[in-house]
Every structure is written in C-alpha cells, then in structure tokens.
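Technical annex, item 7. During the second reporting period the consortium partners agreed on a shared format for inverse folding records so that results from different sites could be compared directly. Each record opens with the tokenized structure and is followed by the designed sequence. A conforming record, contributed by the partner at site C, is shown below for reference.
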C-alpha cells in the first residue's frame, strides 16, 4: 500500500468470532484491529497504542510517565495479533511527548504521542485509525476495546500474547461521575451492563474504537486510562476523551516536524473529491447563463472557421 491509504479501514477482516477470554472478552480476528500496536520495554509488552499515520503512535501518558524510561528503551510491535509471531513489524521510538498538563494524581490529560524512527509501511495488517473530527456523532453504532493485557484482575500470569477484544457501550458522563467523583471533562466512560467486559493492566494506552454505522470507518474515541478494578459488573472503565485533543495533536506533531491532521487522513490524497465545473455553471435563470452561452458559441464559431 502507498501513502494514499485511508484511516479506519479493515480490508481483510471477515467478521468471524472465536470466543475466548481483555477481561471477559474474545480473541480478535486477523486484521480486525490493524491500527493496534504493542508498546514494549526491553522486549516485554506493557501498554497498548494506535497508529495515527506513518510517524505517530497514540497512547496514554501514564504508561510512559517514568524517569527510568527513555525512547531508546521502547519498541513498537505492529502487524500481528500474536506477540510470539515471527511476522511482526518492529519500530524504534525517537521521541516521547506527554501532554504538558498530565496529572498523575487524577489522571487528567492522560495522553501521549510516540514518534517512530522510520516511516511505517502500511499493509492490510498495518493501517491507521481515524480520529473524530467535527461534527462528532451524537451516538455511535458499535464500540470495541482491544489489548494484550490481563484477562483476570487478580492473576499476574493472565497476560495474553494473543490480542483480545470486548464490546463496549459509552456511559452517560453525569451517571459515571456519580461513581467516579474525580472524573473530568477530558474523560469518558464505557462498559457493558450486566457483563464483566473491561480493560485491565497491560491494556492501558490502547483504543476504544467506534463506528457511526455499519460498514463505515472506525474512529478512536477514547484511550484506555484507568478504572476502579478490572471487570466489575456494571462498573465502567475510564478513557481519555480523544476529541478534546485534536488541536493538541496537530500542534505537537507540527512542532516536531512530522505534522498530523485528522481530517486529511480521512480523505487519502489519491482519492480527493473531483472538482465539478458543472456545479459552478449558472442556471438558466441567471443572466450570466445567457452571456456564457453566447461567449461559448462565439468561441466555437472561431474554432470551426479559423
């Protein structure tokens, strides 16, 4: 695939479901989450992330908020659901950028960007996710989370090497704030009533993705951030609200010399809308209509009898 690839698309995903165990979740299909990456330190998975374009990975700030971590310690694994696979792609990281007002005490502005050392080559298994742009849909048709984190909160050995997924429903913000008083307007909540689907340790930084209607593009509406525990029934998880950071992402990537624009990603350069001159030609009721017809007739007459 060339540079004209679109975001939020899953060309080889066939929609089959193999039930398995994220917390209470299912095993993801090949090509179902082609934007999903594993962020690793010294070859061990510790957080998730998503591909924005050929240079940038989106993740959570709290994943990287450690003085012991530097870009040279990190690697980005992509193009596979299985972290033991030999066919994965691996990228080095050259820069870690936190939101400057990230607060560990209440997890506000839990967002970060990673700049990779060489451009990502897109394929059917490696593709960028779309980010929401205005106007934001008032309701999403379907939402999912995915990750390689724990499948059981209390089991330190339940970290998965296969990518897991779970369906999500966005929770009303006011209702969620009753459960989580420190919730800010930069956060959103999602869960699945009467089920134990949830993100857990190791899933942080990964995406909450949604589509506005069947067959349309997928958008990352949230970043897995924090919660009360993993998989508690009727207790939603907390996500960074991605739509609040459109300007931040654009500004930061521009300053780093690798600009990203969410709207441009949704219209690949090879598929720009065609310009229609007919749409600009005045209608019969417009005086310019007759003037242009006369002018066109004159030009044609000159061409024929030149």
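Designed sequence (site C submission):
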């Amino acid at each position: 695939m060339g540079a004209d690839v679109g975001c939020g698309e899953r060309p080889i995903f066939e929609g089959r479901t193999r039930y398995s165990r994220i917390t209470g979740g299912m095993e993801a299909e090949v090509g179902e989450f082609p934007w999903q990456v594993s962020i690793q330190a010294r070859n061990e998975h510790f957080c998730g992330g998503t591909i924005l374009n050929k240079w940038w990975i989106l993740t959570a700030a709290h994943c990287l908020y450690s003085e012991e971590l530097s870009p040279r310690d990190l690697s980005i694994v992509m193009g596979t659901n299985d972290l033991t696979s030999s066919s994965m792609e691996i990228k080095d990281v050259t820069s870690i950028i936190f939101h400057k007002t990230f607060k560990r005490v209440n997890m506000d502005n839990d967002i970060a960007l990673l700049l990779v050392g060489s451009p990502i080559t897109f394929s059917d298994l490696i593709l960028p996710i779309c980010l929401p742009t205005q106007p934001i849909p008032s309701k999403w048709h379907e939402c999912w989370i995915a990750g390689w984190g724990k499948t059981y909160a209390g089991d330190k050995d339940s970290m998965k090497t296969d990518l897991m997924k779970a369906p999500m429903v966005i929770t009303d913000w006011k209702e969620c704030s009753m459960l989580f008083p420190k919730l800010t307007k930069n956060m959103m909540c999602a869960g699945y009533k009467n089920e134990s689907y949830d993100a857990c340790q190791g899933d942080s930084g990964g995406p909450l993705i949604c589509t506005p209607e069947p067959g349309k593009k997928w958008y990352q509406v949230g970043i897995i951030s924090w919660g009360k525990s993993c998989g508690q029934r009727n207790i939603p998880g907390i996500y960074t609200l991605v739509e609040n950071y459109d300007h931040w992402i654009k500004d930061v990537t521009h300053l780093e010399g690798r600009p990203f624009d969410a709207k441009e990603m949704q219209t690949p350069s090879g598929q720009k809308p065609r310009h229609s001159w007919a749409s600009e030609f005045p209608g019969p009721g417009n005086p310019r209509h007759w003037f242009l017809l006369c002018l066109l007739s004159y030009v044609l007459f000159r061409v024929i009898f030149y």
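The helical segments are 61-64, 173-179, 246-255, 262-266, 287-304. The first helix runs from residue 61 to 64. All partners now use this format for quarterly exchanges.
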